[in-house]
Amino acid sequence: MALADLTDPNAVRRAIAEFDERGRDAFLDEYGFHPARDYFVVVDGKRYDSKAIAGVAHLYERGALLTAGEFSGGDSTVATRLEKLGFEVTRPASLPDWSIDELMLALDLYLRTRGVVSYSPTVKVVTDLSSELRSLRIFSDNVRANPRFRNPSGVALKLHNFSSIDPEHAGRGMGHGGAGDRRVWEDWAHRAEELAQAVALIRARGETDEAPEDTGEEEEYEAPEGRILFREHRRYERDRKLVAKKKAAVHKKTGRLACEVCDFESSEAYGVEGVIDVHHVVPLHKIGESVTTMADLALVCPTCHRVMHKHRPIISPAQLRAQRFGA
Ligand SMILES: [Zn+2]
Ligand SMILES: [Zn+2]
Question: What's the pTM?
Answer without folding.
Answer: 0.66
